Amino acid sequence: MSADLLEKTEAGTSTSQVVGKSYKHDSAEKHVSGTATYIDDMIEPYGTLHVAPGYVLHEACGRLTTIDLSAVRAAPGVVAVLEAADIPGVNDCSPAMGDDPVFVSDRIAFHGQLVFLVVAESRLQARKAVQLARIEVEAETPLVSVADALKAEQKVLPDYEFRRGAPEATMERSAHTVKSSFALGGQEHFYLEGQMAFAVPGEDGDMLVHSSTQHPTEVQHTVAKVLGVDEAAVTVEVRRMGGAFGGKESQANQWAALAALAANATGRPCKCRLDRDDDMILTGKRHDFLVDVEAGCDAAGKIEAVQINLNSRCGHSADLSLGINDRAMFHADNSYFYPEVLIRSKRLKTNTVSNTAFRGFGGPQGMFAAERLMDAIAIKMGQDPLDVRKANFYREGENTTPYGQSVDEHDVLAALVDELEESSEYRVRRKAVDAFNAENTILKKGIALTPVKFGISFTLTHLNQAGALVHLYRDGSVHLNHGGTEMGQGLYQKVAQIAATEMGVRLEKVKITATNTSKVANTSPTAASSGTDLNGMAAAIACREIVGRLKTFVAQQFEVSEDDIELVDDQMLICGKQKLSIKELAQLAYEHRIHLSSSGFYKTPKIIWDRERVKGRPFLYFSYGASCSEVVIDTLTGEMKVERVDVLHDVGKSLNPALDIGQIEGGFVQGMGWLTTEELWFDDAGRLRTHAPSTYKIPTATDVPEIFNVALYESDGNPEPTIYRSKAVGEPPLMLPISVFCAINDAVASLNKGVLPTLDAPATPEAILKAVKAIKVGEEG
Amino acid sequence: MRTAIRFLRKGQIVELDRFEPTTTLLDYLRLSERSTGTKEGCGEGDCGACTIALGRLRDGKLIYEPVNSCILLLGQIDGCELVTVEDLEGPDGLHPVQKALVELHGSQCGFCTPGFVMNLFTLYHANTPGLTRQDVNTWIAGNLCRCTGYRPIVDAALEACRDGLNDVFAARAMETESKLAALQDAQDIHVGDDERFFFAPSSFQRLLETYGEHPEATLVSGSTDVGLWVTKHLRDLPKVIFLGRVNGLSTCYEDEQGIRLGAGASYAVAEQFLKSIDPDLEVVISRIGSKQVRASGTVGGNIANGSPIGDMPPMLIALGAEIELQSNRGRRTLPLESFFIDYGKQDIAENEVLTSISVPRLSADEQFRAYKITKRFDQDISAVMAAFCLTVKDGVVERARMAFGGVAGIPKRASSAEAALVGSSLEDPGSWQDALNAIESELVPLTDMRASSTYRRDIVRGLLEKALLEISASSSQKTRVHGQRELVEGGAHVS
Which of B82, B79, B83 lies closest to B57 in space, CA to CA? Predict the structure, then answer.
């Protein structure tokens, strides 16, 4: 990639830029009319079969003593029953570590681990046949919770720590010390379209897999590995997902593998669509944590030293737990300078499904710890929590994170928080809340304003690369393809806006096409909020390559300078005057044998991370935001209502304000669910009992505050050379609603000034009432 | 007798004479019709992705109600107009609700969108003047969206409904009404054979006869519970008797003594009668299930399935409701509370059918309060459902009835606390203590995924205290975070 391509980060010279405008989602009309095709909606080729996975119903771990599938094989419609021994390749669907068998045959390590697969003529027949299995287990007592695993010292990965100075000693000399321990719950993704894959066998062992995945390349690798064929024999395609949120990053692999195994075994197309309950039981979730925070600070509440222990439930295997727990550590500072610090992480192994990526990827859990610390300091020292937060913000001379990267944009953080403090009328409302609480004994209000600083780039540095493929056809239409996947976030539209701008065509001329491993290979997952940063830049680079060739050609043909040529609105202008339409230009260039296709490749500059030595710059930049929330709680029942929320969020120069606002609002509500109503409840046998929407409660419209003011921060643009100076927006907003939790905490704290509430997350009515009861008798959290 | 169901679809009459008794409407749409616009999100009626609209005649007028097609049995749509997301686009392009969703960025991943579109289509046709955000929130509580955070969807609903009815469905309403009227008949419907059938009797007599002949048959009313036996437990139900066509079974009326609800009346219909008893009935019913569930589910089903966590029984028991049961041996009435004997055991004989519920009105000196405590405000099964009915004379409690759901194997009264409360003065909170202590010791709830035993006991006590505080009106302070009772008392509607 040439340096000048990277340098050119502002939108081209085009007079009618397509970027920066609030185009609707590319599939909006199709969504509302039911014509957007999800994988289960595709027309099924003749002979399509359906699969259903089989697992042990009642036990979570132990040795398998009997596996009797004779009744399953004899059931109506059953074509094949597959087990571990039927796998032609490697029995593993893990993203990296080789520790996630597709099927087990000797022992199960968690409730829901697969033992077999039924392939049948209909989905119902497959599901019914599964029920006929007779499997016996010599059951063992499972390790279910973080506490269980801590006690048993079972880990999936080694401990890891960030240290600066000697916080233990410094803390002893501090004027004030505070500490808090708390539990922080996990979260089910609850994408509306469940896990889904459809495998169509071809000649020579080829396999085409339609997979609802954020990581087509990894699905390709997994299918090749499991079938024992070359990666070149497997093609994975995905046009859209019905939501993903991280749940289809590594954990789409297994279902694609099942469909492919069945297709390979039967020679017929095979579909794997999980039932919702199976989906929730069989796939991993956001990691839940037990956290200890402790800090020493001076008389003004300024932090001198911090210690944080982050203990997470990873489940039975590593999956993506390394990166997730690292990211929790990277965000345990949130926006605050810790002069001396020790952040320790334990990655615990339990007999539960392997936890996985979920929007924020550990960041939210780390950030939550920081905010809990700020509240603890404020409550113990009798200060307004916002003052404590501001006193500890990164600032000039105090802008080095615990992992050594400097925070360059600390002014943006401060300015953004100041602006929100003003626009939300935080101070006035703080007084009103106090007045309400003085008058009311049953209901209590709370308010909180919390910041978000989120690091952008994969911390596994090599993933920060992307490819695109662009064709200009002779009628002037543009075919756009890249490695990013569309899960609802509007990535396809944003990249199309970039391509239209670069090519100088109207948006309608850009044909959006399904992500496909045979068009752009060796892609990274659409994750880490990086979809637009990476793929948008790769597409821009591909377009610039074609435009460059066209300009060189036109300059020669018309004997003008390349600088005088402009492509805009489907026209080629020379010195501002129309010369040719894009169609005429493409045709002419074709006739002069100009190459009208190009790939584009981008790798994020500047980043480097030495994990062993805890040194480097893992992130290209940070995204910032802040939110102010006000809540009311019922001290008799623990019920809670969010009354008002104000959000200000920094997306740099927005590529599409409507789509960005959509990410912010949607992320906020999803994060609010994580911290309030969404509770994962395992029984003593290690079985998840909240495995359907009847028992697992994500927010509904009523949970969204009546007053919900969301605004984009007026930015000068990303100081880093990102695509058109935009900033990533996928994950950061999920952490904004930590202010909702802090506001609930504030309401509880009002019952007994100076006592830190024992509130755990999620703050369900039960958790709130428990904290209310505790604080009334002076118990500390 | 008819051997086929008939329904209206895209203006045409469709007749189906061959289907499994438990084939769901969603499977019919996606697998038989190959209309894949309607999605399956959960298969248990809780996410709303499969929402379709059913047009029905109510008092001769066409109304559209949203229904979860994943748990509705295909046979249940006899006599209805079936409208799905594919049908809305008219000659002028997208339907107003579709257009508003597009323009206001109401879809992201799009998977929940068809369900929202269809539910908003029914909201559009409800043509409610002065529609508020809260009205929309309640209306769409049965539709989950994981992407948008709902704000743009609610905006789109308000935008689409602003200018009143103007779509092809409204334009051809009279024609639809006459087509649907022509489909109504007094025939029994029997699809299948003697071993496997979907049977929809048109009269009590035929219902009782057939149930007498096939006591192992499954009675289905709204299918909001039985639907899950099919989709989740994969149970084979070879003989299904659908109650929805039984003449008179859904009839509700009111007189001086009270309200009589036909056991087959949906929540949506029953609520129109019950809300005149007390605002809390409207407040609680607006949170039972969702608009979709309340359009299908019935009060009779909520009682007859014997669930210890149904929301209606505690309220009806506190109010002193009676039920009527019929079989081919005759009819009998009994107090609702004695219907529930033990977990999974009710006072109902083989081939007996619950036919009606009689609910007395409150007298001038009776005060009623009901509270539904859940993790999530809307569409959530109660951790505890509590209902209180106090007779108060001169500030002293003369009689108390308290009933609770979610605290035992059956809907349960708290008789010790009731006794302890008699004689208490509303003005003297000190006199409530015996009852508050009694209620904590007499109920021993379970711990499960919805709540711990401790929490359930805490809130049972807290709710009695709240009820007493509210009834005594000893202070002007607010007592509810959502304040919906106050809204209803102020003249608003919450359902």
Answer: B79
Q: Which residues of A264-291 are buried (b: 16+ CB within 10 A; e: fewer)?
A: bbbebbbbbbbbbbbbbbbbbbbbbbbb
- Give the CATH number for residue B304: 3.30.465.10
- Taking a contact as any Cβ pair under 8 Å apart, which residues of chain B between 45 and 74 contact chain A? 46-47, 49
Task: Out of B360, B388, B419, pick the residue that ends a domain.
Answer: B360
**Whether residue B467 sits in one domain with residue B431:** yes
Look at residue B474 in the predicted model and tell me its pLDDT.
66
Structural domains of chain A ordered from first start: 1-13+409-456+621-781 (3.30.365.10), 465-603 (3.30.365.10)
**Using CA atoms, how far apart are residues B69 and B303, in angstroms rounded to an integer?**
23
Domain assignment present for B223: yes
Q: Residue B101: its chain A contacts at CB < 8 A?
A: 28, 31-32
Whole-model pTM: value is 0.97
Could you give phi then psi for residue A68, rounded to 5 degrees? Answer: -110, 105
CATH of the domain at B409: 3.30.390.50
**Which residue of the set A44, A731, A766, A779 is catalytic?**
A731
Over the Cα atoms of chain A, what is R_g? 27
Contact state of B101 with A32 under an 8 Å Cβ cutoff = yes
Is residue B265 domain-shared with residue B336, that is, in the same domain? yes
Domain that includes residue B117, residue range: 89-166
Residue with tokens 């084979």: B236
Q: Is B10 on the interface with A (CB under 8 A)?
A: no
Active site residue A59: no
**Which residue of chain B has the CA closest to A635?**
B462
Residue A490 distance to chain B (closest CA, Å): 7
Task: Mark whether B320 and B208 lie in a shared domain.
Answer: no
CATH number for the domain spanning B70: value is 3.10.20.30
Boundary-marking domain end, from B137, B166, B195:
B166
Q: pLDDT by residue (tens digit) across A734-776? A: 999 999 999 999 999 999 999 999 999 999 999 999 999 999 9
With respect to residue B460, please indicate whether it lies within any of the assigned structural domains.
Answer: yes
Sign of the CA dihedral running A18, A21, A26, A28 = negative
Q: Which of A126, A116, A124 is nearest to A79 (CA)?
A: A126
Lowest mean pLDDT among A348-357, B173-182, B474-483: B474-483
User: Do B78 and B99 belong together in one domain?
Assistant: no
- For residue B218, tell me if it sits in a domain: yes
Other beta carbons within 10 Å of A85: 8
Tokens matching residue A34: 């039911």
Count of Cβ atoms closer than 10 Å to residue A683 Cβ: 14
B433-442 and B453-472 helices, crossing angle to 10°: 150
- Same domain? B218 vs B290: no
A89-132 pLDDT, tens digit per residue, is: 999 999 999 999 999 999 999 999 999 999 999 999 999 999 99
Quote the CA–CA distance of A494 and A537 in Å, as a whole number. Answer: 11
- How confident is the model over B19-38, as pLDDT tens digits? 999 999 999 999 999 999 99
Look at residue B452 and tell me if it is in a domain.
Answer: yes
What is the C-alpha separation between A622 and A327, in angstroms, rounded? 13
Residues B349 and B375 in one domain: no
CATH of residue B143's domain is: 1.10.150.120
Q: What is the mean pLDDT of chain A?
A: 96
In this predicted structure, what is the pLDDT of residue B487? 85
Same domain for B259 and B191, yes or no, is no
Nearest to B151 by CA among A656, A701, A629: A701
> Phi-psi region for residue A736, left (φ > 0), alpha (ψ -120 to 50) or beta?
alpha
Phi, psi for residue A556 in degrees, rounded to 5? -70, -45
Residues B70 and B148 occupy one common structural domain: no
Residue A573 scores a pLDDT above 80: yes
